[in-house]
Design a protein that fits this description.
The protein is an alpha+beta fold. It is built from 3 helices and 3 strands; from the N terminus they run H-E-E-E-H-H. It has one domain. The longest helix is centred in the first third of the chain and has 15 residues. The chain starts with a helix and ends with a helix.
């Protein structure tokens, strides 16, 4: 999968999960996505892996760790898996 496509998918997922459906994207050395999730401001950093072949797996793992403390209901998790393939 293309790195740009993976990054867009993650950004869309984080926008979907944010409380007010708004996020802030800072592009400096890395792409930082900030938003309000469950009443707290959280930041997710998209990184560049040295090996492009592992990038999707690495980002998938990071997104799962980011989402885990949110305690989402099963219906939302189904939508996430179906729509964003995470």
């Amino acid at each position: 999968m293309n790195i740009r496509k993976v990054n867009r998918s993650v950004i869309n997922l984080l926008r979907y999960l944010s409380d007010d459906k708004k996020i802030t994207i800072n592009k400096r050395r890395h792409i930082c996505v900030a938003g309000i999730y469950r009443g707290k401001k959280k930041t997710f950093t998209l990184c560049h892996s040295p090996m492009e072949s592992y990038y999707e797996q690495e980002i998938r793992s990071m997104v799962r760790r980011f989402i885990e403390p949110m305690d989402l209901d099963p219906n939302t998790l189904k939508i996430i898996k179906k729509k964003f393939k995470f």
